[in-house]
Design a protein that fits this description.
74 residues; 2 helices
C-alpha cells in the first residue's frame, strides 16, 4: 500500500479499526472487484466440471459446445 495507514487499538491492544486514504480505499475496492469476478469465473468452471463428471457417471448426454454456441447466438 502506498498511502499512510492508521491503525487504532482498544484498551487491551486489540486492533479495532484502520484508516486509509480514499485513494488507497478505491484501489482496494477495485482489486476486490477483480478478485470477485475471477472467483465467479472459477466457481462456474468448477460447477461445469462437476456437471460433466456426473453426466459421465450416469451416462447422461450433454449438449455439445457447437450447439451451445449456436443457441447463444439466437
Amino acid at each position: 500500500m502506498n498511502g499512510r495507514i492508521q491503525i487504532y487499538t482498544d484498551e487491551k491492544g486489540n486492533k479495532s479499526s484502520v484508516i486509509v486514504s480514499y485513494e488507497e480505499w478505491a484501489n482496494l475496492q477495485s482489486r476486490l472487484n477483480v478478485l470477485k469476478k475471477k472467483l465467479r469465473v472459477f466457481s462456474s468452471i468448477q460447477k461445469g466440471a462437476r456437471e460433466v463428471l456426473e453426466a459421465r457417471k450416469s451416462g447422461r448426454k450433454l449438449q455439445s459446445l457447437s450447439a451451445f454456441i449456436d443457441e447463444s447466438r439466437n
